[in-house]
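Render NAD-dependent epimerase/dehydratase family protein in 3D.
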Amino acid sequence: MERILVIGANGQIGSELVDALAAKHGAENVVAADISHASLYGAKIYEVVDVLNTDRLAEIHDKYEITQVYQLAALLSATGEKAPLKAWTLNMDGLLNILELARIRGEAGKPLKVFWPSSIAAFGPNTEAVNTPQYTVMDPNTIYGISKLAGERLCEYYFQKYNVDVRSIRYPGIISYKSPPGGGTTDYAIAIFHSALKGETYSCFLEAQQSLPMIYMPDAIRATISLMEAPIENIKIRSSYNVSGMSFNPQELTSEITKNLPNFQVHYAPDSRQAIAASWPQSLNDEAAYQDWGWKAEIDLNALVTDMLKNVRVTN
Ligand code: AKB
């Protein structure tokens, strides 16, 4: 039986992952943890945890006899640029604290399986931008991206040196409606739905033609759980797997939305986030994830837009 801890449970991925894991393993086996005082999404078990507090991490692991941990607490790309030192400390030390805990527990005969999210931000301006390969130039130029690339190297190091079973995905921009946008460069593709449904003109901070890899949340959750459930011998990559859902630019997303809301308009006012987006891939090659653990996206742009319009309407 698995006992699972999700750190960053009030964030974009955590808020949906906790429910998916509870449906699979039973709500009594999933501990939602975050730095704020309460669960924002009604988790059955909730603990206040700061991932930078190693004593508290050890205490929670002992209390619930945790066997799997998802370390999702992080500052994203745009927020990270406003507070680079804070982003570096949270993103790097948060991961390192979990990897160390997994090493210590593994050596004590209590293995801890770890999931940690990397990102397309780990790539950079000299990366092949179209159909970006699994292995290629990686020269990120945001603090978030640098922390993701360093984190990938740490994951592989802890696997090779200490046999820690750590698994990771390079997420594209994740589109979802449950939690509010959280300081990412890809978040325009969430905010745009809120404006569209309020009848407002959306002011887009990226250029109309700036394509980025994206994925709809149900596909992202399915990818995450499939990777964590794959047999250990199938996991050939211990840095992080490219995983792709679809690719689109703001103009293509707008055209899809206007099929449903013909009066919707977008005005383009690119800001500093445009330079971040321009340094990232436009589409990803996720062949390795398919070969190793059978990953295949199911949700395309049309299905994403239909579902977002239905659900954002309900929560607005
Ligand atoms: C961001 O935009 O910062 C994130 C990401 C692509 O990792 N959504």
